[in-house]
Every structure is written in C-alpha cells, then in structure tokens.
C-alpha cells in the first residue's frame, strides 16, 4: 500500500483526489492538510510516503520543499509557481518531486498535437478558459503548451489569452493559422474526475523517477 497525504484536501481538486485515493486498492489515505480542516502539512507528513499538492500558487513551492526536506515524495498539481528551486532541493533529498500542469490525458494529447502542428504552420495563439475562482493566469497548461510549441517549432512562444467565467471548469483552444487555412485543437474538462487517473499514476511512479523534479505526465504514458 502506498501511504498518501493530500495538501489542499478540502479544495475542489484536493477533495476529489482524497476520494480517488480512497478508491484505489493499492493506496491508503493517511492525511488531509487544509486550513479549512484545521490541519497543516507538517502534521500529516510523518505518516506519508507521497504527498499530493493541489493548493495555491504561493504555497506549492514551500509545501514541496517541506516534503523534500522530510524525505517524502511530492506530486504537484498546483500551477502558477516557479519549480526551479526544486532542483537544488531534490539533489539534496532522498525523495522526488513530480509536477504536471495538467493530469488529464486529453490535455496531454492536446499539448503533444499542438507541438507537432507548430512545426508545420506559420503562427498560433492559445486561448485558455477557466472558472472564475482560478488564481493564476495564464494557466499552467497554456504556459506549458506555449513552451512545447516554441521548442518544437524553434520559433517564438504563441501568445496566450485568458478567460475567467462562472460556469466553466477548464478548456483550452490552440488555433494555428497559415495561408488560407486554420487548424483548431481544443480540449474541454467538464469534470475534475478527468484528472484522477493521471494523479494516481503519478503517485504510483514518483518514487522511481530518475530525474527530479520531473515535469509532465507524458513521461509516464
Ligand atoms: N495539474 C492539474 O491537472 C490541475 C491543477 N489545478 C491546480 O490546482 C490548484 C488547486 O486548485 P483548486 O482545487 O481548484 O483550488 P481550491 O482553492 O479549491 O483548493 C485549494 C485548497 O488548498 C488549501 N490550502 C491553501 N494553503 C494551503 C496549505 N499551505 N496547505 C494545505 N492546504 C492549503 C486552500 O485553503 P484556503 O481556501 O483556505 O486557502 C483550499 O482549500 C490550482 O493551482 C489549480 O490551478 C487544478 C486542476 C487540475
Ligand atoms: O485551476 C484549474 O482549474 C486548472 N488548472 C490547471 C492549469 O492551470 O492549467 C489545469 C487545468 O487547466 C485546470
């Protein structure tokens, strides 16, 4: 059994992760940290082998550093923070960090297809659309898509447009344009359960990664 604690356990993602971990036969939910539950990460770290973090852009890095210092693997879903400080912390730790800006398989495929298309079409722009409680802008997925497209094409990163509206969960369109034609690649998340198979996969694999921090669910597919 993999002993898993969740940071942000009372949030939209964290509560869904707790349900998914409880439903996984090879995992045990050992801790739930969240201000709303009156519990801190420090209190749940001791019993965990892996922490899953879905918190806030300003807490994800300190939480991950705390996990690495304690020798506990961390799977990070929180977006909108700089992962660079995790390199030095990982080197000094027996534990690993894994970050994915998007754990949904459809979004991983969207990023892959967008990178492939960027090699062949003249210009592109990204539109990301999310619920209005989202704190970061642009989304982690859009930022990563732009990076992958620029790396594949050898050109500039495509501009990103952000929309925040009630009624939405998470959506992204990549529109590419060239002579007399456009290509649109779109992914829609209609329920946060879409992220759960990817999160559970990362929990199972994080202990065995050979380069930490590792970024992107594609490494496990
Ligand atoms: N990688 C992916 O596939 C996905 C990533 N995300 C990302 O996940 C993050 C969380 O999103 P979402 O669940 O919608 O946000 P929520 O605001 O619903 O949940 C975040 C929770 O974390 C709590 N929290 C804040 N600080 C701490 C801390 N130090 N320790 C433990 N818990 C803490 C918050 O409490 P309080 O409200 O009191 O601050 C809140 O309950 C965002 O960055 C989002 O972009 C979302 C979906 C998919
Ligand atoms: O905040 C969200 O909801 C989401 N955040 C991630 C991001 O910033 O890309 C993943 C997904 O888009 C949902």
UniProtKB/TrEMBL annotation:
GO molecular function, one term: NAD binding
GO CC annotation terms, alphabetical: cytosol
Localization per Swiss-Prot or TrEMBL: Cytoplasm
Domain Dihydrodipicolinate reductase C-terminal: 106-221
Reaction(s) catalysed by this chain's protein: (S)-2,3,4,5-tetrahydrodipicolinate + NADP(+) + H2O = (2S,4S)-4-hydroxy-2,3,4,5-tetrahydrodipicolinate + NADPH + H(+); (S)-2,3,4,5-tetrahydrodipicolinate + NAD(+) + H2O = (2S,4S)-4-hydroxy-2,3,4,5-tetrahydrodipicolinate + NADH + H(+)
EC number: 1.17.1.8
Entry keywords, A to Z: Amino-acid biosynthesis, Cytoplasm, Diaminopimelate biosynthesis, Lysine biosynthesis, NAD, NADP, Oxidoreductase
Residues the entry annotates as binding (S)-2,3,4,5-tetrahydrodipicolinate: 131, 140-141
GO BP, sorted A to Z: diaminopimelate biosynthetic process; lysine biosynthetic process via diaminopimelate
Active-site residue numbers: 130, 134
Primary subcellular site in the record, as a coarse category: cytoplasm
Function text: Catalyzes the conversion of 4-hydroxy-tetrahydrodipicolinate (HTPA) to tetrahydrodipicolinate.
Annotated protein name in UniProt: 4-hydroxy-tetrahydrodipicolinate reductase
Organism: Conexibacter arvalis
Lineage, broadest ranks: Bacteria, Bacillati, Actinomycetota, Thermoleophilia, Solirubrobacterales
């Amino acid at each position: 059994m993999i002993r898993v604690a969740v940071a942000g356990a009372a949030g939209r993602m964290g509560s869904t992760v707790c349900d998914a971990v409880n439903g996984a036969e090879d995992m045990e939910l050992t801790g739930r940290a969240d201000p709303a539950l009156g519990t801190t990460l420090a209190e749940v770290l001791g019993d965990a082998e892996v922490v899953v973090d879905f918190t806030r852009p300003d807490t994800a890095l300190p939480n991950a550093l705390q996990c690495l210092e304690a020798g506990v693997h961390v799977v990070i879903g929180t977006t909108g923070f700089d992962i660079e400080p995790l390199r030095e912390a990982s080197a000094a730790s027996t534990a690993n960090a894994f970050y994915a800006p998007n754990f949904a398989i459809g979004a991983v495929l969207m990023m892959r297809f967008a990178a492939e298309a960027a090699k062949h079409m003249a210009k592109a722009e990204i539109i990301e659309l999310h619920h209005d409680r989202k704190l970061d802008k642009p989304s982690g997925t859009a930022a990563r898509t732009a990076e992958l497209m620029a790396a594949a094409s050898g050109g500039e990163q495509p501009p990103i447009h952000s929309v925040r509206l009630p009624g939405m969960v998470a959506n992204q369109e990549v529109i590419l344009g060239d002579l007399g034609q456009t290509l649109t690649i779109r992914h829609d998340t209609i329920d946060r359960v879409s992220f759960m198979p990817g999160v559970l996969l990362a929990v199972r694999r994080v202990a065995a990664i050979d380069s930490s921090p590792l970024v992107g669910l594609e490494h496990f597919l």
